[in-house]
Amino acid sequence: MSQAKSEQPARPNSTRLAILIPFAIVTLIWGSTWIVITGQLGVVPPTWSVTYRFLLGGTAMLAFAAAKRQSLKLDARGVGFAALVGLLQFALNFNFVYRAELHVTSGLVAVVFALLLVPNALLSRIFLGQRLGRQLLIGSGIAMAGVALLFVHEIRNDPSGGGAVYLGIGLTLLGVLSASTANVMQATKTAGRYAMVPTLGWAMLIGALADGIFAWITTGPPVFDPRPAYVAGLLYLGIVASAVAFPLYFGVLRVIGPAKAAYSSVIIPVLAMLLSTVFEGYRWSLLAAGGAALAGVGLVLALRARRPAR
Predict the structure, then answer these.
(1) What is the tens place of the pLDDT at every residue in 195-207?
(2) I need a surface site. Which of 14, 87, 172, 210 has the fewest CB within 10 A?
(3) Residue of 31, 285, 266, 277 lying closest to 153 (CA atoms)
(4) What are the angstrom distances between the C-alpha of 90 and each of 10, 54, 104, 238, 250?
């Protein structure tokens, strides 16, 4: 007698690697950016630092697209799409995040940003019709429990205390909502009509233009810090963390969906704290270690779930 149930064929290893390798690269890169961003604050107003970052990143992406002989032209609809992504992802999101780090530690901002998976999942369900399977929901619950433990640990150990903590959290949540909207846009049919690299390049430049206008209005003419540490950090954020990481991340997002792609934001705080242990003397507690472990378990469960159905 033949088997009653036909088993769904497993994804080829090459397909899994095509998802897991860029996912791991992006997570490692963005896990390090929280420390680098703190070095961008001080002499240069935050919005000018954001402007320089995406001016550099957008230029690098368009140069790469031109070298690959990809067309840099966009029709009116493509320009509108790139402009909206630029304003949400590369203007609002990062201005909120950079300002949040003026009030709270980079570790706390990274922990709060892990909540990205919640609006990503909800918006995907509302606008893309993606159903969330039981395993994905269970993994989300476990991971969010881990994030909650990390959050409690950071709140208890944050030196600023008082209203500054909640102001920083509020700014980060606004950044999360902006980024989530841009994430879901990348999974739409409109995004699939245009080549990713040149479209993101224009989005970064449009975002940089908006950042520059806002910076000039609120803080005055451009300010630059010639210190090697600032310049090196700017190059890392503009080239590696933007021009390299965003195409990799959005490429994965288009395959596995915004909800599962956002799990990079769950493991990133753990990496940020590991790097902080090495470079900033971060001290782990049982609470933080337990939170990191739960986040990792939830991540594995969620990523092993089936791709979201439309």
Answers:
(1) 999 999 999 999 9
(2) 14
(3) 285
(4) 37, 7, 21, 11, 14
- pTM, rounded to two decimals: 0.81
- Give, as one character, the DSSP assignment of residue 44: S
**Amino acid symbol at 128:** L
DSSP letter at 256 equals H
Residue 247's alpha-carbon distances to 25, 106, 186, 253, in angstroms, are 11, 24, 11, 10
Burial code (b: 16+ CB inside 10 Å, e: under 16) for 267-283 equals: bbbbbbbebbeeeeebe
Give residue 95's identity as a one-letter amino acid code: N
Q: How far apart are CA 92 and CA 211, in angstroms?
A: 8
SS3 assignment, position 5: coil
C-alpha 171: how far from chain center: 15
The strand pairing partners of 131, in sequence order, are 309
| Rounded Cα distance, 281 and 248, in Å | 31
For residue 217, give both structure tokens: 């209005």
Q: Is 203 buried (19+), middle (13-18) or exposed (0-12) by CB count in 10 A?
A: buried
Residue from 235, 13, 265 nearest 144 by CA:
265
- SS3 (DSSP) at 103: coil
For 99-139, write each residue's pLDDT tens digit: 888 887 777 787 778 778 778 878 888 877 777 677 777 87
- Location of structure tokens 């049982």: 286
For residue 80, give the amino acid letter: G
Segment 4-13, tens digit of pLDDT: 444 444 444 4
Q: Which residue has tokens 């001080």?
A: 42
Tokens for 243?
A: 């021009």
48 to 41, 52, 246: CA distances (angstroms): 10, 6, 20
